[in-house]
Amino acid sequence: MTEALLIVDLQHDFASPDGSMAVEGGMAAAQVMLEWYGWAKHREIPIIMSRDWHPETHSSFKQYGGQWPAHCVQNTRGAMFTIPPSDDVIVITKGTDATADQYSAFHDDLAAILRAKGVQRLYVGGLATDYCVKATVLDALAELFHVSLIREGMRAVEGTGEMAGKEMIKAGATFAMDSAEAQGILDDISYKDYRFILHEERGELWLHIQYDRLDTFTGIDGIGYARPWHISRAQTETGLVKTAFAAVKLVEEHEAMEAFKYRDVRPFDPHMPLAALIRAERTKEAFQQ
Question: Which residues does the annotation mark as catalytic?
């Protein structure tokens, strides 16, 4: 599934402590999104950044009867991105009409642009959870894109944004997997002597499996290591657990095949699960046909 990163309104007036509409925790969210920006660059997937770009007399400003302080006025520092975009980033400019609010980044044919690039899933973060992020996510879902919310990469104007988060989840969004959350899920898996270890490199998540093993040739006890498995950031908790057990199944089949390879020299490992031995025997027979 082709993916893209959508960063919503990460601008100085929202993210910086001295911004005219500074969101609590905005710079922490910006740091998280900077890491995701680097991840998207490494993977060479599309990056979209939206921005408020208001005229000085915008109707949402308090001095003109609106509810907000003046913010993100065109060509001011407050309107500048916290993360300077490279030339290949798709910039979506909104709020240029002085008479209308515009929270969602889905205009200027953004949906058509994404479809032309084959994008099906959006990872979304930015400011603020309860306004522009929520409006953008709901429009993305209405356009039938899959949406993964970057939990630590967004903050709300009002409170924690919990209600907005629930609304987005109810509409069909999911939370993107982060390394700490994934490791916590893996730590709760108790299966034989297997240990599930998550490693993060350049924003990519990799599952490593360690297990106690008896070498079927030498008879020496040791530690086995399985090849790492890539974990999608869009993975759900259930999907992560299924991936872990799928990896274990392959490990057991491999160990069983090793036992059969040396069965004329040394009996197969008595610790090997019977089901794995049966699968290995069937695999061996299939190769011999």
Answer: 9, 94, 132
Pull the structure tokens for residue 117.
């690039």
Query: Using alpha carbons only, what angle is made at residue 83 by residues 72 and 233, rounded to the nearest 5 degrees?
Result: 120
Q: Quick one: 190 and 157 in the same domain?
A: no
User: Do 64 and 170 sit in the same domain of this protein?
Assistant: yes
CB proximity list for 189: less than 8 A, separation 6 or greater = 196, 241, 244
Check if the beta carbon of residue 4 is closer than 8 Å to that of residue 48: yes
Maximum Cα–Cα distance for the chain, whole Å? 88
Task: List, in order, residues 6 or more apart from 68 with CB less than 8 Å away.
Answer: 21, 60, 61, 62
- Provide the number of structural domains found in the chain: 2
- Span 228-274, pLDDT tens digits: 889 999 988 899 999 999 988 888 887 766 655 554 444 444 444 44
Q: Note the pLDDT tens digit of each residue in 2-26.
A: 999 999 999 999 999 999 999 999 9
